[in-house]
Design brief:
The chain is built from ten helices and 16 strands. It is an alpha+beta fold and 323 residues long. The chain has a single domain, classed as Ribonuclease Z/Hydroxyacylglutathione hydrolase-like (Metallo-beta-lactamase, Chain A), CATH 3.60.15. Strands 1-2-5-6-7-8-9 form a seven-stranded mixed sheet. The protein has a seven-stranded mixed sheet with strand order 10-11-12-13-14-15-16. The structure holds zinc ion (ZN). Zinc ion binds next to helix 5.
């Protein structure tokens, strides 16, 4: 048996740097790209698929966490082994096949000049799903990274036969000219309003608005999760005895905001309300030992949440080759 100590590990690491030279004549070409981002899971009789739309890695923006210093944010990023000085934010829409309806929850970033996002349609294709077959597009809230996938690069609808459902309170907030006027001196909000208006232009009469505590699709119930936006919505998906919670953006990346539930991400509309929602949601999820899905969790974006001394931690699901 080989004894594993620090020295042998380091020698191993040094030796492995020689490998690319040795394998220069390998018959198998390097792929150079990531594999398809798909993970299937069952909720009772429903077959669900976590579909990765991509992930961005960006230098931590000033004010990314509103209520702590940038130095503290940098320490958290380092503790989570993010690339130095940067933060990685993934995007994961969910496809729910209830047997009678094909429901897509959130649509990702849509066509983008940035090759690290906008992979939803390519991944759906690998999953064997024709966008024309999607019956319902269910939006958790109207932020651009959740709605921009509604349209293709030429402006046509990516899911032409789907009913689009949006939370009533978000619709009222973002479609208010008065709110848009008030946002003109806040760059992030100004961009949000412009993007949201553009995406929904001409669709105003085609979007169905939903309220909380309603069955918004077969087996899918809308749950109040306000704060991130006024109408921000989580969902419970239930089939038979099985249940899973789609948290949407109750937190952004767990490495920051589950570990530190009092931290306020710059994207939260009402940060104090978002904190209350977060704690309530995770206290219930931890007590119930519920599986939760987070739009901005690391792919496949599913796990359990446990309470820690200072916040919560995510225990991700392990890959399961069997459904
Ligand atoms: Zn988001």
């Amino acid at each position: 048996m080989v004894e594993m100590d620090r020295r042998s590990l380091l020698v191993g690491a040094a030796a492995s740097t020689l490998l690319p030279l040795q394998s220069a004549s390998a018959l198998s070409p390097l792929a150079g790209t990531q594999a398809a981002g798909l993970y299937r899971y069952k909720v009772g009789a429903f077959e669900c698929t976590s579909i990765n739309d991509g992930a961005i890695t960006i230098p931590i923006p000033d004010g990314f966490v509103r209520n702590v210093s940038k130095d503290e944010a940098l320490v958290a990023a380092e503790a989570a082994y993010m690339p130095k000085g940067k933060v990685t934010v993934p995007f994961n829409p969910q496809l729910i096949n209830t047997g009678s309806k094909l429901v897509l929850i959130d649509t990702g970033n849509g066509p983008s000049a940035n090759p690290s996002v906008g992979h939803l349609l390519a991944n759906l294709k690998v999953a064997g799903v024709d966008p024309k077959d999607v019956d319902i597009v269910l939006l958790s809230h109207l932020h651009p990274d959740h709605i921009n996938g509604l349209r293709l690069a030429d402006g046509s609808l990516a899911f032409p036969n789907a009913e689009i459902k949006a939370p009533n309170l978000d619709w009222a907030f973002w479609m208010s000219d008065e709110n848009q006027a008030k946002a003109q001196d806040k760059p992030l909000m100004k961009t949000y309003f412009a993007t949201i208006r553009k995406t929904f232009s001409g669709l105003e009469n085609k979007v169905t608005r939903y309220d909380w505590d309603k069955e918004v699709a077969p087996g899918i119930t809308s749950i109040e999760a306000a704060g991130h936006t006024p109408g921000h919505t989580a969902f419970a998906i239930a089939s038979g005895d099985a249940r899973i919670l789609i948290q949407s953006d109750v937190t952004n990346i767990p490495e920051f905001f589950l570990r530190h539930p009092d931290w306020q991400v710059m994207f939260d509309n009402d940060p104090e309300q978002a904190i209350k929602t977060r704690k309530k949601f995770y206290d219930v999820a931890a007590a119930e030992k519920a599986l939760i899905v987070g739009f901005h969790f690391p792919f496949p974006s599913i796990g359990h949440v446990e309470k820690t001394a200072s916040g919560y931690q995510l225990i991700p699901v392990a890959w399961n080759p069997v459904l």
